[in-house]
Amino acid sequence: MSGFAHLNGHPGGPPTLPPLALADTVSALFGASATMFALYYRDVRGGGLGQMIDLSIFEPFFSILGPQSLVYDQLGVIQERTGNRSPFSTPRNAYQAKDGRWLAMSASSQSIAERVLRLVGREDLVAEPWFRDHSGRLAHADELDAIISEWVGDRDVEEVMKTFEQFDAAIAPIYSIVEIFQDPQYRARETIATVDDPRLGPVKIQNIVPRLSRTPGRIRHLGPELGEHNHEIYVDELGYDDGELETWRRSGVV
Question: Which pTM value belongs to this model?
Answer without folding.
Answer: 0.79
